[in-house]
Amino acid sequence: MAEKEEKERVCITGAGGYIASWVVKLLLSKGFIVHGTVREPCDGKNSHLKKLEKASENLKLFKADLLDYDGLCAAIDGCTGVFHIASPNLYPKVSNPQAEVVEPAVVGTLNILKACEKARVKKVVVVSSVAAVILNPSWPKDRPKDEECWSDPEICKAPENYYFLSKTLAESEAWKHARTSELDIVTVCPSFVFGPMLQPTLNASSYVFLTYLKGSFSVDQICVTNIYKICVLHYTLEVQFLFLTSLLYIYSLGLRFLDIRWT
Ligand SMILES: NC(=O)c1ccc[n+]([C@@H]2O[C@H](COP(=O)([O-])OP(=O)(O)OC[C@H]3O[C@@H](n4cnc5c(N)ncnc54)[C@H](OP(=O)(O)O)[C@@H]3O)[C@@H](O)[C@H]2O)c1
User: Fold this and answer.
1) Percent of the chain at pLDDT exceeding 90
2) 39 lines ligand 1 (CB under 6 A)
3) pLDDT, tens digit, for every residue of 111-133?
4) pLDDT (0 to 100) of residue 229
5) What average pLDDT does this structure show over 185-204?
6) How far apart are CA 135 and CA 203, in angstroms?
7) Structural contact between residues 238 and 125, judged by C-beta atoms closer than 8 angstroms
8) Which pLDDT score, from 0 to 100, does residue 190 have?
9) Ligand 1: does its nearest atom lie under 6 Å from the Cβ of 75?
10) Which amino acids are annotated catalytic?
11) Where are the alpha helices (DSSP H) in the chain?
12) Which structural domains are found in the chain, ordered by start?
């Protein structure tokens, strides 16, 4: 795709994370000015971002926790699009999952959406997960789980399922908020994402993958998606908010994208 002539600004939350780093790299390569939020800009785990091509001119990092509304507003100000990718998980260790995982995911998502409204952002891509889809025992057995399917929050309340709870509540709150506002959002529900890492430290899905390769656990069935596919999907969604009159844009309005169909 041709590089953009005018430099448009987009914000990516949790820019130093596994998926977000690839999205930052891709958007920089396409000529965007990228505002990335990170919790610790000087931490070595985010150092790879500054080494990305065009980062020295076009990447600006903002220090912001998901619970820091003012910090998020500063990062989103002036942006036409936002990719909300940051989300806590249970790796490596969490002592209070409600406070450390569920609350930042849910309140953080709402903070992002409010900051987007304030900044009159054109399009927000919220990265959810199949975790918000698959824990639904009442779903008909003969129907593959699709975009209509939601994990049951009560079942997600088991201690080992707090990540599922955080993603389910964060995505459903995002949709509730979107219905009462002018915001144009889409959500993406990837499955287990793997592929090359740009960041120097292990993220949760790469850790799980490594543990699997080492034979520490086995699974009957695992559904994976490739990091490159996620980036292409993100870029396609991003393109949609730029070409407002395109057919793609019309199709994307208010949609939930499920990466795969789960049986
Ligand atoms: N990887 C997968 O297989 C997979 C599958 C489905 C969905 N997803 C979703 O995709 C997104 C990215 O996942 P990933 O695998 O790339 O994870 P990751 O590498 O662990 O990245 C998560 C990012 O979120 C940030 N974060 C966590 N808690 C935060 C908080 N309270 N305030 C601000 N930032 C916070 C982290 O920042 P710090 O570095 O400061 O901790 C990190 O940058 C998440 O929304 C995840 O749920 C991932």
Assistant:
1) 56
2) yes
3) 999 999 999 999 898 999 889 99
4) 57
5) 85
6) 23
7) yes
8) 81
9) no
10) 167
11) 18-29, 47-50, 55-58, 69-76, 97, 103-118, 153-156, 162-179, 204-213, 227-242, 247-252
12) 9-258 (3.40.50.720)
Compute the distance between CA of residue 106 and CA of residue 99 in angstroms, rounded to an integer. Answer: 11
The model's pTM is 0.89
Sign of the CA dihedral running 90, 93, 98, 100? negative
Coil, strand or helix: which one is 150? Answer: coil
Rounded to whole angstroms, the Cα distance separating 199 from 44 reads 10
**CA proximity to 68, closest of 108, 28, 119:** 108
- What b-and-e string marks burial along 197-214, b requiring 16 or more CB atoms within 10 Å of the CB? bbbebebbbbebbeeeee
* Ligand 1 centroid distance, CA of 19 (Å): 8
Residue 188 CA, ligand 1 centroid: distance in Å: 14
By residue count, the chain amounts to: 263
What distance in angstroms lies between residue 20's CA and the mean position of ligand 1's atoms? 8
The reply to whether ligand 1 has any atom less than 6 angstroms from the CB of 227 is no
Type of residue found at 100? E
Average pLDDT over residues 148-163: 91
Contact (Cβ atoms closer than 8 angstroms) between residue 12 and residue 35: yes
53-104 tens-digit pLDDT: 999 999 999 999 999 999 999 999 999 999 999 999 988 788 999 999 999 9
- Our CA dihedral for 85, 90, 92, 94, rounded to 10 degrees, sits at 120
Pairwise CA distance, residues 241 & 253, whole Å = 10
Q: Encoding tokens for residue 213?
A: 């390769």
